[in-house]
Design goal:
It is built from six helices and two strands, in the order H-H-H-E-E-H-H-H. It is mostly helical and 155 residues long. It has a domain of 87 residues: Arc Repressor Mutant, subunit A. The chain has a two-stranded antiparallel ribbon.
Length: 155
């Protein structure tokens, strides 16, 4: 199964919470309470997001965490990359990839195309989109959206 880690999911939840109130600085404990996650998990996530340049952190009584840039210019790909590393389907699908089978596999080019399609979609979804209460309307129309599945009764 291809899925993101819980920490990446939590990072998106925390970032969305901050994006909903961008004018204020957010304390780690306040964020943990707001999103109902353990404080140590939120603290770890915040540090990773600061290290990736997505959040800014200030100490002191007026301190806390703020977005490093507007929510509309932070992408889902940025958030995933901050926690997971580069988005790629296979080892050969990203710039630093190293694969022993590259000369004989015969599918590298197609995996790279799949990775590019996924990155393009993730780059088109912003933190502003994720922070909205309304269901996300994908900015990109994918061919898979027109596929209809057979009902279980027909199987």
């Amino acid at each position: 199964m291809l899925k993101l880690s819980k920490l990446t999911d939590y990072a998106a939840v925390v970032m969305a919470q901050i994006a909903r109130y961008p004018e204020q600085a957010h304390a780690a404990t306040e964020l943990a309470d707001a999103v109902q996650l353990p404080h140590p998990t939120v603290s770890k996530t915040l540090k990773m997001l600061v290290r990736a340049g997505l959040l800014e952190s200030r100490r002191g009584s007026l301190g806390g965490y703020r977005l490093a840039r507007p929510a509309a210019s932070i992408t889902a790909s940025d958030i995933i990359g901050a926690i997971e590393g580069p988005v790629a389907m296979t080892e050969c699908s990203h710039a630093d990839g190293d694969c022993d089978l590259v000369a004989t596999c015969g599918v590298a080019d197609n995996w790279q195309r799949v990775s590019l399609a996924i990155r393009t979609l993730l780059d088109s979804v912003t933190l502003a989109h994720l922070a909205e209460e309304a269901p996300l309307k994908l900015p990109v129309q994918l061919p898979i959206q027109s596929v209809t599945l057979a009902s279980r009764a027909e199987v």
